[in-house]
Input
Amino acid sequence: MSTSAAFDCVARRLTEWTSLDALAARGTVRIVLREAGLDAASVAPHQMVAVGRSLLPEALRARGVADSEAVSARICDDLATVKDDVAGRETPERVFARLGS
Amino acid sequence: MLAGRAESGVRMSTEAATGVAIGVMVLANAVVGLSLLRTSLRTRRAPELLIGMGLFGMGPVSQGLTVLAGTGRLPCGEVNHVLHALSAVGSGVGMACIYLFVLKVFRPGVAWARALTAFAVAALLVASVGSVAALSLAAPDAPSKDVLLSWGVVILAVFTLAFGWAALESGSYWLRARKRLRLGLIDAAVTNRFLLWAVASASAFLLGACLLRFQVQGQQLTGSLVPSLLTMGVSVVTGVSMYLAFLPPRAYLAWVQRSTVSA
Output
């Protein structure tokens, strides 16, 4: 299954800016996404920012990443430049939003 | 004589309960189905068209025409065969639309879900054609209920599976949506809609499973009080859940928003 640009961006930055390797970085992001009810294939940049602010710092701290708050904040800033490649995709959420209108 | 009167009273009340159950289901499917079809005209999207056709086809079209045709009540020679065939089309198309809705919304492009949908549509096609053919070929004095029993079991099994699947998909999505709600990533009303559709589907699944059990055992639903009341209760839950999900009154939406804020 392909992953969204927002997921790829966060996983890449974690390998560049922390001691986590690629596998650990991707696994960490997948875990926090699951905690947020999201998945790697369809997460949008604005959703990733919300996760980055609320859940990522604690997940990084638990994995021994120093200054996890600052790293998470930097990643959230970086996400502002990521193109939303899932914007036009039909999701259950969008369908159910229309069904009540 | 008293025992006979009591038995007759129970029979009357179970028939009334079954009538209420069918009436509630048909009414809810008609109102909600039409509303969703109207939405599909505005949005020109497939999911709303599929669920609208599904509910309308299975509700007023199928059930209404079944009553008018006399299927199940009359001997084969007295059943209106054209209306029975139209009812079978309504039921088959309606159920196929529910499968396609679940596939398209929750599992697009997933191989097992496509296979399940294809299998269900094929089973519906065979069972619908089979029931029309069986009615045409049967002796005129044969009870239509008995002639159509085996095809009815197949159709009921496909119905039960459709709503079991819908309930699982919508229910599991609701659990994920609740997590998103805590982060402010989804609307509270939309999250609640997943729950309501899961409840409506689970109730329809329960109803299908009860009816299936009765059909397989060859029992009369209208003769027993507990199953009749259960059927009525389940139908009311399904109808109310569908109504609140797809035609929510403003007061209900306000309550959902308030509950989310206070939680």
